[in-house]
UniProtKB/TrEMBL annotation:
NCBIfam families: rRNA_mod_RlmN. It comes from Nakamurella panacisegetis. It is found in: Cytoplasm. This is Probable dual-specificity RNA methyltransferase RlmN. Keywords: 4Fe-4S, Cytoplasm, Disulfide bond, Iron, Iron-sulfur, Metal-binding, Methyltransferase, rRNA processing, S-adenosyl-L-methionine, Transferase, tRNA processing. It catalyses: adenosine(2503) in 23S rRNA + 2 reduced [2Fe-2S]-[ferredoxin] + 2 S-adenosyl-L-methionine = 2-methyladenosine(2503) in 23S rRNA + 5'-deoxyadenosine + L-methionine + 2 oxidized [2Fe-2S]-[ferredoxin] + S-adenosyl-L-homocysteine; adenosine(37) in tRNA + 2 reduced [2Fe-2S]-[ferredoxin] + 2 S-adenosyl-L-methionine = 2-methyladenosine(37) in tRNA + 5'-deoxyadenosine + L-methionine + 2 oxidized [2Fe-2S]-[ferredoxin] + S-adenosyl-L-homocysteine. Its cofactor is [4Fe-4S] cluster.
């Protein structure tokens, strides 16, 4: 029997953002445009500019009547996020931006260029209510859910920045990972709507392949089951961080509600339904979860539950200032990888990015508030 959702699943909202075109489905867009005094077909024109042209600048929308154009655009495409600051590292291949929402809420996104792709790490909440002790966002607590449009706007702005050469050579944003601030499945309805808009073709969305979108979770089983029923082609990533419930109760407090076996059964159902391999996220923490026996246990557990439908993404911990947690030494990391692979489970180490620019989720926002 499915357990009731915890209170943290329905997050409080500190301030309701203005309604934006990206909050609305096609019919609602037409109704909003009509209410604004324009014919319904203008909704497609606006959507083409926003999703296709990646702009909300009225000056770039010459196909709209000049009279009242600015007011019309401002009403349907209100400014949701203003840039506080952006910092870059890794020879310009990593760019982290701190955004301020209409109510002063601070959120972060990270744009990363790789040889074969450009990836955006997007936030789904301001703060996080999961309270994982090694995570900077978790230490700050939950402020509110982001709206669908606030999520989509992060992607639109990143796609525009990549197109316009913010990371050197102009490029196309190809991948989106919901691994920024917040627990995506704790903001389920808005994240799902955002995913559908990110992957829909223009003029209804940004046209990014669903197979290039990853949604992460610490293991909210009822929400994983709901996502499974959607039969989307997005990748599911489960932040496991240890193979034993005793330690996970401490590292990932929501484990009190849904234990590891239950989470992995839900992950297997997702993999079976979608045909997509599940990614297991594992932040390797020195002398906490990096023991050889835990590597053996992890490999055996994943082989039993997921077989070949799994990949372990080992993450060298990016320590937060003042934290008691630290990254495991490289020899320990290498031995952990070897032991997981010995169980027949694919395992790789995530490319570390942005350590000198506080790239761990929540660090930049925390610095701004000091």
């Amino acid at each position: 029997m499915t357990k009731p959702l915890p209170l943290i699943f329905n997050a409080p909202r500190r301030g309701k953002p203005p309604v934006h075109l990206a909050d609305l489905d096609v019919d609602a867009r037409k109704a909003a445009v009509t209410q604004a005094g324009q014919p319904a077909f203008r909704s497609d024109q606006l959507a083409r500019h926003y999703f296709g042209g990646l702009t909300r600048d009225a000056a770039e929308m010459s196909d709209l009547p000049a009279s009242g154009r600015q007011d019309f655009v401002d009403a349907l495409l209100p400014e949701l996020l203003t840039e506080v600051r952006s910092i870059a590292c890794d020879d310009g291949d990593t760019r982290k931006t701190l955004w301020r929402a209409h109510d002063g809420t601070l959120i972060e996104s990270v744009l990363m260029r790789y040889p074969d792709r450009i990836t955006l790490c997007v936030s789904s909440q301001a703060g996080c209510g999961m309270a994982c002790p090694f995570c900077a966002t978790g230490q700050g607590g939950l402020q509110r859910n982001l709206s669908t449009a606030e999520i989509v706007e992060q992607v639109r702005l990143a796609a525009r920045a990549a197109r316009d050469g913010a990371m050197g050579e102009p490029g196309r944003l190809s991948n989106v990972v919901f691994m920024g601030m917040g627990e995506p499945l704790a903001n389920y309805n808005r994240v799902l709507a955002a995913v559908k808009m990110i992957t829909a073709p223009a003029p209804h969305g940004l046209g990014i392949s669903a197979r290039s979108v990853t949604v992460s979770t610490v293991g909210l089983v009822p929400a994983i089951e709901k996502l499974t029923a959607e039969k989307l082609q997005v990748r599911l990533a489960v932040s496991l961080h240890t193979p034993d419930d005793e330690l996970r109760d401490t590292l990932v407090p929501v484990n009190d509600r849904w234990k590891i076996d239950e989470v992995l059964r839900a992950a297997r159902a997702y993999a079976d339904t979608t045909g997509r391999r599940v990614s297991i996220e594992y932040a390797l923490i020195k002398e906490v979860n990096d023991q050889p026996w835990r590597a053996d246990m992890l490999g055996e557990l994943l082989r039993r539950h997921l077989g070949q439908l799994v990949h372990v993404n080992l993450i060298p911990l990016n320590p937060t200032p003042g934290s008691e947690w630290d990254a495991s030494p490289k020899p320990v990391q290498d031995e952990f990888v070897r032991r997981v692979r010995a169980q027949g489970v694919a395992c790789t180490v995530r490319d570390t990015r942005g350590q000198e620019i506080a790239a761990a989720c929540g660090q930049l926002a925390a610095e701004e508030l000091v």
